[in-house]
Amino acid sequence: MVTPYSSFEHLVLSVCSNRGKGWRFVMADSLTVYVDDSGTDGKSKIAAAAFCVSPVDRWLKFLDEWNRIARYFGFELRNFHMTEFAACRRDHLCQQCLAGHTSLKEHPWQRWSDVKRKNVLTRMAKSLAANVEWCVGQSYTKADFDGHVRNSQAKKSLTEPVAEEYVTFAVQRCGGSFAQWRADNSRYDRLKFVFDTSSTKEKRDIAKVFFAAANDRPKIVNGVEQWFDPEEGVSYESRKITHQLLAADMVAWATATIRARHLFRHIRFVEVYWIARIFVSTEHIGIGYLDKRTLARWERDALNGENREGSSGISKLRPDDAEANQGSAQRDKGEVGCGESRKK
What is the pLDDT of residues 144-166, one digit of tens each? Predict the structure, then answer.
């Protein structure tokens, strides 16, 4: 059993592996996976999650750059959250400010010009893209999840656990993509997972599909992990303290907002346009979604016992995953680019 420890200890052990009696050695080739979600609000129709993955030294550089951006522009990372940043503007205050929970002190961007807002988000997104080794965001509508997964008889025909909660199913989807990336690139790095603060029910769901209940099955099938072995630990931390989680927050928010824009055209697209242009221009940051047709096809195949073998047990709900992700990514790029050409 792995004993969890803090991100600070993970950093110290990586830099000074022989310091401290009884401290475990952390290999230089270990990766830290920061995980966040979007859509926990009961009013949200979209659920999304994101994985941001890098070794400790690159996370250090990321944190240093984001702290310098925050100091230069006059805000604190502990008060930053993409949902609140996007919603709090000169002509429109966020719900937290309207309710008196936050003010100009915590949300100075409520008085910024669009030029300054774009400058800040662009710098932050470029730093994220430069320092994260691999990242993915996945989304879907809650209605489609309810209709074809949560309330479907198809789950009974599966030999693997399926997430029950909206956001943990999105996390499971990201886990499947991460397992495939590790297999495709022969990455055997030791792993540490850091999740944003979650409810007891969500923690239990994550343990079921990722770690605890999964290890009664083979770990590797056809070269792909069916469950993760977090050799460097698992922790649940607040993004107000562990600011690396803000990277996953930004990607999860962008993923959910792009999907919402596809479905509900009235959604504001200004801030997500600024950052998504940067993300989709890279080869290592992916933004995708499951549409109703894909989930319905998975449900049909599961009921017929036709789900393919060898896909990642962490997220086997992906009968046509590569095609679905590629197609959605291309549609996202077209939306974000607004007709502008990109270098291939």
Answer: 999 999 999 888 777 778 888 89
